[in-house]
């Protein structure tokens, strides 16, 4: 936990390096980028300098904002469906060893299919627009949730199960008292992975078949040779990704603080 | 004294599973435990001691023979046994007190009234924790306790619902010698106070002799009882007794049986 680390490091140096480190690295990256572009005189249509990208962000501000909101919305919609479906399927699979054995290969197979190949099918079924984007975000992000919830349930200590069964506990008791609370850290941990995947899914679909969203905007900007705008879109995506990841990490910390005992977890 | 646990001519074969061929864990196992008795089971490692535990609690069914607990033939988990293992297996998201109370949420007799009598149960749990030297630990999480303290708490969990039968599977195996001897006394006192029937599976011969009224020695796999030794050292026993020649003789004798069994 950060508080723990802070206490140890802060008094010695006077500066809280742990808190500052992400800012220093991010700003450093942009500074190096800027200097490199200036130094080697890279043309803006190959790699625009951060200042140039900032210019594009200001210039296309309203449109960028609108499309960012659109992408955030489709991503969150797909992600929400993935949580509901992933939890349900994870509980179902983890409930019984036979279900686990039966469905696991299917899941692996499904997850191995590149989602790029699925988008055209979705478009065929639902038409271009936000529906395929939501569905792609869902399809790409539910797998880690299912696997983690199922793993949490399947790895109950046999001794714990014996203790409860020797008391006359039914499967349902074991699951609600032990299995489900036990799989929660796995579940919340998987959300952090799933949310970033959901962004990949929605943007992927938007670049193939949509008329709004960051993916669509990027494709249009690329066609118009507006390279700084392409990068502006990428940065908007990165910001959204970091933001949602932070929300998930915070949620994880809030809900399952008991699972984070060492000073190094997080 | 009537027998609480009666195992008659029991054999158990585990089915072949994922690369492990089927094994005969116990064969022709015969033993009986009287109500209120403290029994220890010793034997070479892998002799089916844990299988014996599972048979007596109805977690496993015999391939042949019969298991009778409290006058009834076992055909499902006996639902009145308390168990403790070498690994205390506490639930880390529950306070130690709530871990101890877990059986009451499950046992059919208590689960309905559990919420209503919560305050009384709370107090009962704290008293039980205090009786094993864990005053005030109820409000801590199990991972804030040392290994020995967790093991004490797991004994409390095994006893909270006043089981007729307490099954202990090497409960002190992972503890240091001093803590172990301290917990011997805790178990001794709990047995004396509550009159519960105890079956202790252990590797430690001194532990068996110190605690038990009767010791069963098991053979190497497939396990069966090769010797039954009554311990006639008067009770209550103090730790000093472990240094008497009489005590050492019994340990020595048991050691002989096990050495034989291992060949």
For the structure shown, list the relevant keywords:
heterodimer, A: 266 residues, mainly alpha, MetI-like fold, 82% helix, B: 263 residues, alpha/beta, four-stranded antiparallel sheet, 8 helices, 10 strands, globular
Structure description:
The complex is a heterodimer of chains A (266) and B (263). Chain A has 266 residues and is mainly alpha-helical. Helices cover 82% and strands 0% of the residues of chain A. The longest helix of chain A is centred in the C-terminal third of the chain and has 38 residues. Chain A is globular, with a radius of gyration of 23 Å. The N and C termini of chain A lie close together (6 Å). Chain B is 35% helix and 24% strand. In chain B, α2 crosses α4, α2 runs parallel beside α5 and α7 crosses α8. Chain B has 263 residues and is an alpha/beta fold. The longest helix of chain B is centred in the C-terminal third of the chain and has 18 residues. Chain B is globular. The interface between A and B is medium-sized, with 20 and 29 residues.
Q: Which quaternary structure do these chains form?
A: heterodimer
- Number of helices, counting only DSSP H or I runs of 4 residues or more of chain B: 8
Rg over C-alpha atoms of chain B, rounded to the nearest angstrom: 19 Å
Count structural domains of chain A: 1
Helix content of chain A: over 70%
User: What's the level 1 CATH class of chain A?
Assistant: Mainly Alpha
**Which term fits the overall shape of chain A?**
globular
Sketch the topology of chain B as an H/E string, one letter per element.
EEEHEEEHHHHEHEHEEH
Q: Uncertain segments of chain B of ≥5 residues (pLDDT<50)?
A: none
């Amino acid at each position: 936990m950060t508080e723990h680390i802070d206490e140890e490091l802060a008094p010695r140096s006077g500066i809280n390096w742990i808190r500052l480190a992400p800012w220093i690295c991010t700003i450093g990256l942009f500074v190096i980028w800027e200097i490199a572009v200036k130094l080697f005189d890279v043309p803006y249509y190959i790699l625009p300098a951060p200042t140039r990208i900032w210019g594009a962000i200001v210039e296309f501000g309203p449109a960028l904002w609108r499309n960012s909101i659109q992408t955030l919305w489709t991503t969150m919609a797909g992600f929400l469906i993935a949580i509901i479906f992933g939890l349900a399927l994870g509980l179902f699979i983890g409930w019984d060893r036979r279900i686990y054995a039966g469905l696991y290969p299917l899941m692996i197979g499904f997850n191995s299919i590149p989602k790029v190949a699925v988008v055209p099918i979705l478009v065929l079924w639902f038409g271009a627009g936000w529906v395929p984007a939501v569905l792609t975000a869902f399809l790409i992000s539910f797998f880690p949730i299912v696997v983690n919830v199922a793993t949490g349930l399947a790895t109950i200590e046999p001794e714990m199960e014996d203790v409860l069964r020797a008391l006359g506990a039914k499967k349902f008791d074991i699951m609600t008292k032990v299995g489900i609370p036990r799989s929660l850290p796995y579940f919340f941990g998987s959300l952090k992975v799933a949310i970033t995947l959901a962004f990949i899914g929605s943007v992927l679909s938007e670049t193939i078949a949509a008329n709004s969203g960051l993916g669509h905007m990027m494709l249009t900007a690329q066609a118009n040779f507006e390279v700084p705008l392409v990068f502006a879109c990428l940065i908007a995506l990165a910001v959204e990704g970091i933001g949602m990841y932070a929300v998930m990490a915070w949620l994880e910390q809030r809900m399952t603080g008991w699972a984070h005992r060492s000073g190094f977890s997080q | 004294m009537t027998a609480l646990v009666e195992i008659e001519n029991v054999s158990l074969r585990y089915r072949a599973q994922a690369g492990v061929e089927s094994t005969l864990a116990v064969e022709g196992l015969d033993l009986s435990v009287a109500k209120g008795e403290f029994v220890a089971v010793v034997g070479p490692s892998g002799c089916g001691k844990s299988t014996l535990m599972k048979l007596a609690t109805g977690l496993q069914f015999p391939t042949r023979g019969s298991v009778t607990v409290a006058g009834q033939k076992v055909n499902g988990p006996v639902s009145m046994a308390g168990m403790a293992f070498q690994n205390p297996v506490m639930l880390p998201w529950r306070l130690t007190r709530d871990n101890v109370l877990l059986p009451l949420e499950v046992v059919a007799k208590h689960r309905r009234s559990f919420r209503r009598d919560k305050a009384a149960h709370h107090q009962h749990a704290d008293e039980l924790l205090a009786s094993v030297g864990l005053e005030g630990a109820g409000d801590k999480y199990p991972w804030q306790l040392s290994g020995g303290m967790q093991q004490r708490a797991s004994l409390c969990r095994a006893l909270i619902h006043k089981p007729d039968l307490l099954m202990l599977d090497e409960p002190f195996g992972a503890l240091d010698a001093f803590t172990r001897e301290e917990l011997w006394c805790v178990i001794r006192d709990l047995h004396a106070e509550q009159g519960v029937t105890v079956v202790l599976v252990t590797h430690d011969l001194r532990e068996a002799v110190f605690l038990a009224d009767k010791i069963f020695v098991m053979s190497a796999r497939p396990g069966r009882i090769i010797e039954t030794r009554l311990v006639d050292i008067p009770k209550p026993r103090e730790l000093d007794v472990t240094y008497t020649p009489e005590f050492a003789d019994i340990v020595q004798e048991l050691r002989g049986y096990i050495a034989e069994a291992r060949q």
